[in-house]
Write a structure and sequence with these properties.
The protein is α+β, with helices and mostly antiparallel strands. Helices cover about 35% and strands about 20% of the residues.
Length: about 190
C-alpha cells in the first residue's frame, strides 16, 4: 500500500472546505505509488487527487513542480492541474505533510508495456518539450530529479550506468510506478 499517511475524515473535510469544489462524498487511498500518499477524492462536483508529499520529496522543491504543472496545463498539455484554494494558495499542509489537490485525469496504466506505449511516451515528450522548455522558473528542483539523481531515487529494477550516463529499466511487470504513471500520462496526452 502506498498510502503512508492516514487522513482522518474531519481533517479531510476541513482541508477540502478550503477549496471551492463541493463536499467530499468519498475518499479512497491509491495503492500504486512509491513515495507519496495519494487519494482519489470524489466531491459533489468531480473527482480529484489529493497528494500528501512524504519524506523523499524536499518541501522546497514542491513550488517548482506545482508551478510547472500549472504552466503546462495553461499551454494545453494534458496533465493534472493543481487547484488553488479560495485564498489563491495551491500548496498547503495536511497531517504534517505538504499537500495539494489536483484535477483528475481518467485512464489506467498498462500492466504489460508494449512498443506502442513507448511510442506514445515519445510523442508526449515531444509535445511537452516546446512548452516545458519555455518554463523559466529556477530549475534546482528539476536537477535534483534529473537522470543523475535516478540511482538515489529509483526503484530496484532501474539501472544506471556510470560509464555511459544512461539509465535502463528491466521490462518487468514490477515496473516502477513513476514509469507506469508516465505511460498513462503519455496515453492520455496522445488521446487529447
Amino acid at each position: 500500500m502506498a498510502v503512508y499517511t492516514d487522513v482522518a475524515d474531519d481533517d479531510l473535510r476541513a482541508f477540502i472546505a478550503l477549496y471551492d469544489i463541493g463536499e467530499v462524498l468519498s475518499c479512497k487511498g491509491i495503492a500504486e505509488g512509491v513515495e507519496n500518499s495519494n487519494f482519489l477524492i470524489t466531491t459533489e462536483r468531480a473527482n480529484f487527487i489529493l497528494t500528501l508529499y512524504e519524506k523523499r520529496v524536499a518541501p522546497r522543491d514542491l513550488p517548482f513542480f506545482i508551478a510547472l504543472m500549472e504552466h503546462l496545463a495553461r499551454h494545453g498539455v494534458a496533465c493534472p492541474t493543481p487547484l488553488k484554494g479560495r485564498d489563491g494558495i495551491a500548496l498547503r499542509e495536511l497531517c504534517g505533510r505538504p499537500a495539494a489537490v489536483v484535477t483528475f485525469l481518467a485512464g489506467m496504466w498498462p500492466r504489460r508495456i508494449q512498443p506502442f506505449h513507448c511510442a506514445a511516451v515519445g510523442g508526449a515528450l515531444a509535445a511537452l518539450l516546446p512548452d516545458g522548455g519555455a518554463y523559466t522558473k529556477p530549475a534546482v528542483a528539476a536537477r535534483r530529479r534529473s537522470i543523475r539523481g535516478w540511482p538515489r531515487n529509483s526503484a530496484p529494477n532501474l539501472r544506471f550506468s556510470r560509464l555511459t550516463g544512461r539509465a535502463s529499466c528491466r521490462p518487468e511487470s514490477s515496473m516502477p510506478t513513476s514509469f507506469r504513471t508516465m505511460f498513462s500520462f503519455a496515453n492520455a496526452t496522445c488521446r487529447a
